[in-house]
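Each field is set out as follows.
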Amino acid sequence: MLQAEADRLAAQARTVFGDLRRLELEREIAQQRVHQAEVDLARVTTAQQQAARRLKAIEATRVAQTPGVAERLVELSKRGRGGYLQLLLASDDVRAFGRLSRGVAAVAELDRVRLETHRRTLAAEQAALAAANAERSAVAAAELAARQARASLDTAVAARGRLIDSLDRQRDLAAQYVSELLGAQAQIERTLATAEASSSTLALPIRPFRGDLPWPVAGSVVSRFGRASASRFGTVIVRNGIDVAAAEGTGARAVHEGKVAFAAPFAGFGVLVIVDHGAAAFTLYGHLSEALVTEGAVVKGGDVVGNVGVSPAGEAALYFEVRIDGRPVDPLQWLARRSR
């Protein structure tokens, strides 16, 4: 029953809950094997003890029989092949012959029974010895099976424990990541507030180009604007921009002319470039490996402002954000639809 469920889970797509259940099943199956191994060990141990007792009893019988049998064998050996005949001829009293013959026959039968009994005792001892040896081997095999079952159980318990620990660590890391990301976003707010204070009016404002701006890099969107899950545990954050997958080192281009308001490393966003497009409109380019412009420089649409680097998640991607009147807006509403 448990094995069937484990096999069914193994055939399904892997999930955290599925992994936990698989490991729990492995632990339960291993626990059953340990129980069965212990039952088997107890059974063969009892059988070994019984075989040992039988062997000891038979050995005691053999030891008790041996002196009498040995004496009769010595006596028969001395008399030779005609030993019983010599007993009959030992008396020349004809009247006593019949009585003597019956006595010799009784002695001969007694010797036969004694020797046959001893022979059976020896055979039984050999069989009991073989059985005891077999039971000892069975006990050794059962002990090995029990050790292996316990080791399998320990492995299953440890594997489940490691996964639980890993999930806890990932939850902690997810919480730390979200906290740091929120802190970085707050820092961006302060940086933009400073930039807005000195924002100038450019000749070609960006607002009329809503929905027609060229993409900063060609690629697919891997993280969207707005509320989104930050981890496999469902931690939710609010993203102020989008992540666009692109090969590391790809040039990130300004989507519109403007003036570089910021170009430097920024915690949580790699190297960050902020372009001021005038009238409190800004675009942000993050996760860059390096900036190719400097603060105060004037750029045209299409100019490379930096090279794509790696996001905190370990993927090569460009972070792109659009700010209008100090508020983040969905970049997909500003980029040209034909390039998505």
Observations:
- The helical segments are 2-10, 16-79, 83-88, 97-197.
- The mean pLDDT is 75.
- The two ends are 50 Å apart (CA to CA).
